[in-house]
Design brief:
With 303 residues, the chain is α/β, with parallel strands linked by helices. It folds into 2 domains: 171 residues, NAD(P)-binding Rossmann-like Domain (Rossmann fold); 121 residues, Orthogonal Bundle (N-(1-d-carboxylethyl)-l-norvaline Dehydrogenase, domain 2), CATH 1.10.1040.10. 44% of the residues lie in helices and 21% in strands. It contains 12 helices and 12 strands. The strands form 2 sheets. It has an 8-stranded mixed beta sheet with strand order 5-2-1-6-7-8-11-12, with helices on both faces. It has a 4-stranded mixed beta sheet with strand order 4-3-10-9, with helices on one face. Helix 11 runs antiparallel to helix 12. It starts with a strand and ends in a 6-residue tail after the last helix. The structure holds NADP nicotinamide-adenine-dinucleotide phosphate. The site of NADP nicotinamide-adenine-dinucleotide phosphate has 30 residues, from helix 1, strand 2, helix 3 and strand 9.
């Protein structure tokens, strides 16, 4: 069965190249004819690993293609997910499976609500990749991908494809706890790196600000019924700040390059959840206001 991959960007490209080189059938889905023409002109997708570039001539199509889709890796940004899936909905076969690679929370529910008959599998990945040109992906950081499905917890057989492709992964019964934990880590680190204009390691200079956010995020996770995701959050945040001291957070990079951020699926989602639980989290709310103001000043979308 073919792997359809929507979004031949950083993570989509990284998955596509590894699946294709393992001999598995992969089809890239590009947004329109002009993107398809650009892709065909380049002769395929390039993946750069350890400074070694390889070209993968993976077949590509547009969303308008008519072939049915049984398995789809949705690899666009969270803010594009709902619209992208709407354009593909007519092509999804009965019982189709979707793997949602989006960071944060909120986009997965929006997609699942639109497709009540599809099986939505959620993913949380720490792999790192970026694009340094059109259809050219740099594999920047080894990582790991957790996968799980809150409504149908049995592991799918196609995990063997990921194994064969060397994609480090594990199936989990509690993917929501993994996604909440990552959301909390992102909320404690990423907005502050933007506001203080620093690498992750620069946050070592603001221990009280980080600690206050960690306390509030732990409270939120517990109230949202994810106590495991709340455990030792502050310790892990401090470890991540140290271990990734030289890195720029994804939100920092988005802002630095004038790109839209995924704030709506990270900080905004956390603030909405707090409001829903009638929880007062003043540091988190203040962080949201400061970040929105910072983005607005730079002409970037504030949600
Ligand atoms: P990205 O490099 O910007 O790639 C997104 C791709 O989606 C682009 O190629 C874009 O097409 C495509 N796309 C958007 N809407 C589309 C549509 N309607 N039809 C077809 N293609 C469409 O993003 P990314 O970095 O891979 O991130 C994807 C998700 O993974 C995000 O939620 C991110 O937070 C998460 N994530 C990323 C990393 C990482 O290291 N990159 C790590 C962990 C998690 P165009 O090229 O035409 O714009």
């Amino acid at each position: 069965m073919a792997w359809h991959i929507l979004g031949a960007g950083s993570l989509g490209g990284l998955w596509a190249a590894r699946l294709a080189r393992a001999g598995l059938p992969v089809r890239l889905i590009l947004r329109d004819r002009s993107r398809l023409t650009s892709y065909q002109r380049l002769g395929g997708l390039t993946l750069v690993e350890d400074q070694h570039a390889s070209l993968y001539p993976i077949p590509a199509q547009t969303t308008a293609d008519a072939t049915p889709i049984h398995r789809l890796l949705l690899a666009c940004k969270a803010y594009d997910a709902e619209e992208a899936i709407a354009s593909l909905a007519p092509r999804l076969a009965a019982g189709a499976e979707l793997i949602l690679l989006q960071n944060g929370l909120g986009s997965q529910d929006a997609v699942a609500t639109r497709l009540p008959r599809a099986r939505c599998i959620l993913a949380s990945s720490t792999e790192g990749a970026y694009r340094d040109g059109d259809f050219r992906v740099i594999f920047a950081g080894q990582g790991f991908t957790w996968l799980g499905c809150p409504t149908q917890p049995a592991a799918p057989l196609w995990l063997a494809d990921l194994h064969a492709s060397g994609i480090p992964h594990q199936w989990t019964d509690d993917i929501l706890a993994r996604l909440w934990r990552k959301l909390a880590l992102n909320c404690a680190i990423n907005p502050l790196t933007v506001l203080h204009n620093c690498r992750n390691g620069g946050l070592a200079a603001y221990p009280q600000e980080v600690a206050a956010l960690c306390n509030e995020l732990s409270e939120l996770l517990e109230r949202c019924a994810h106590p495991a995701a709340a455990a030792q959050l502050r310790d892990e945040v401090e470890r991540v700040i140290q271990a990734t001291a030289n890195n720029y957070s994804s939100m920092y990079q988005d802002v630095a390059q004038g790109r839209r951020t995924e704030i709506a699926y990270l900080l905004d989602y956390a603030c909405h959840a707090a409001q829903h639980q009638a929880l007062e989290l003043p540091h988190l709310q203040r962080l949201q206001q400061r970040l929105r103001a910072y983005l607005a000043e730079r002409g970037l979308p504030t949600q």
